[in-house]
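Notebook B, p. 112. Complex prediction, attempt 2.
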Amino acid sequence: MAERVVATEEALKLIDLLKERYGSIMFYQSGGCCDGSVPMCYRDGDFRLGDSDIHLGEIGGVPFYMHKSQYEYWKHTQLIIDAKEGPGAAFSLDSIEEKHFITDSRVFTDGEHKDIKTLL
Amino acid sequence: MIYANPNTEGALIHFKDKYDNFIGGKWVAPVKGEYFENKSPVTGEVFTKAARSSAEDIELALDAAHAAKDAWGKTSTAERARILNKIADRLEENLEMIAVAETWDNGKAVRETLNADIPLAIDHFRYFAGVIRALEGRTTQLDNDTVAYHFHEPLGVVGQIIPWNFPILMATWKIAPALAAGNCIVLKPAEQTPVSILVVAELIQDLLPAGVLNIVNGYGIEVGKPLATNPRIAKVAFTGSTAVGRQIMQYATENIIPVTLELGGKSPNVFFEDVMDKDDEFLDKAIEGFVMFALNSGEICTCPSRALIQESIYDKFMERALERVKAIKVGNPLDTDVMMGAQASNQQKEKILSYIKLGQEEGAELLIGGKENDLGEGLKNGNYIQPTVFKGNNKMRIFQEEIFGPVLAVTTFKDFNEAMEIANDTLYGLGAGVWSRSGDIAYRAGRGIQAGRVWTNTYHQYPAGAAFGGFKMSGIGRENHAMMLEHYQQTKCLLVSYDRKAQGFF
C-alpha cells in the first residue's frame, strides 16, 4: 500500500529530537503566505483539529494532518518530509532549532494512485 | 548607484550590536537576557542580534500598554492625527536610511524599498491621520423622545503579529489604523526580520506617549502564543500562513476577542486576447503586469503567481513576456539598478527549490529559470533564485500553493467562462489581475473572480484608500482603508430617553 506521507532519515532525527524535548507532537501541513506551504510541527493539542482535517498517516510515530480542501489538490502526490539547515517557520517547534522540516513531494505512479483512492 | 553595506564605511546605517525590546517608551532588555542572531539575506551573514523574549516580556509590554491606554483613548482625534503626521514627516526625512535598513533585513531590492515600501508606509500614516478626523458616529431619533447615539470607542490594547515580507509596511498597515482609532499596541515583528521596525521606532520614539506602541521581539512559539492567548488583549491581527492563522483564531476563542487575518493567496492574472490587438503602450503595460510575479522576489501574498493567457494569443504573448522576464536584472539588492534581490531566508529558498522540482515532476514545462542563482563574490551565501516560469495546468500543485518566490505558473483558457472557472479554482481569494481593452470584459471578469482585490489593467498597486483583504481561505478583514478603523473600534450605543414618564411595565 502506498503511503501518503513519509519522512527521510534527517527528518526522523529531527522528529526524535523534538519528541525528546516536548513529548507528544503532531504535524499539520500549512498553506498560504510567508511561512505557508510547510509542515508545521506542534505540541500535541496546540493546534485543534476538526472534521475539516484529514489524517494522512504517521511519520516517526507522529500523526500528520492537513485540511481536506487542501488535500483535494495534493492527493496525486506523496509528501516526503525532509529536514534542512536553518530554523523553521514561525510558531512551529522547529523554529528554534538549527534544522527545519520541509515538504518535498513526488507524483504517485498510476498504481499507487489507485491504492490511494481507496483511502478517501 | 550601489549603497554601501550597512556597518561599513560610508553606510547610511550602522546597526547596533544588539536590539532590546521597545516597551513603555524605553529600550528594555529581555527578562531572561537572551538574544537571537539576525542574518542579512543579502550576504547570509549575521549583522545584529534581537531580543529573544519570553512571556514575561509580553507581560511587561502589556503593563505599559494598559498604563497608557486610558489617556491615549481620550486623546483628541486632532492630536492623534497630528502625531501620525509627525511620524510620517520623520520617516520621510530619513527615507533613504530606512530603505537601506529594510533591504538589509529582508533582502529585497532597494529600488523597491525606496519607491514602494517606505513611501507607502509614510503615506499610510498620513492617510489614517486624515480619515480619523472625518470619522463620525451616527445618531438616530428612534421616536420623538428616544435617541440612539453611536460612538466609536477604541478596543484598548491590541496584539499585532507582523510578517517578514514587508516588515515595515505591514507593521505600518497595522500600527497606523490602531493608533488612529485610539488603541495601544503590543507588536511582535517576524523573527526573520526583527530589526528594521526597531530602526523606525528609534526614529519616532519621542513623538508617541510612552506605552502607546510597544515592540517585543522573539520567536512565535515563545512570544507569539503568550501574546495571542493573553486575556489582556482585546484583539489580535495577524498576517501569515493558513495554519498559523487558524491557530491565532483558536487562541482568540479562549478570550472571545476578534481577529483580522491576512493569509495569502494564489492570485490569477488573466490576459484576454484583445490585449494584443495593438502593439502599443497598453500592451507594454500588460507585459509588465505579467512580470509582476517577480516583484519583491515573489514574496507577496498577492503575487500574481498564476498567469491565465487566452489560447489565441498564447504564443505571441509569451514570446514578448519571456523576453521581459529575461531582462529582469538580479543582483546586489543595494544596487539601485537591480530589479530583484534575495529571498528573505534560507528556509524560503529551500522551499522554493522544492516546488521547482515538484513542478518538473508534475510534468510542467520549464520555460525559463528554475535554478538557484549564484551571484558570485560577496553574495555567495545569500538566498537567490532565478525568475522562473512554468507552463502547465491548474490542477498541478504549483498552481495551487503559495510558493512565495519568483515562480510563475502559466496556463491557457479558451473563453471567458473557462477563464473564470480556472481563476476561481483555488482555495484562496486575495488578489487577481484582469487585462483587457474592453470595459465590459474587464468589468465582468473583475466581478466574476472571487477575490478581495482585483487589479484591472494594472497590478501590485497598494495606495492607501483601496481596501485590501481576502475572500475564501485568504483571511478576514480589510486593511489599507478607513474601514480598518472598524476592526480597531467597538460601537457604544447610548440609548437615551427624553421622556419623563415611566414605561408602564411595573
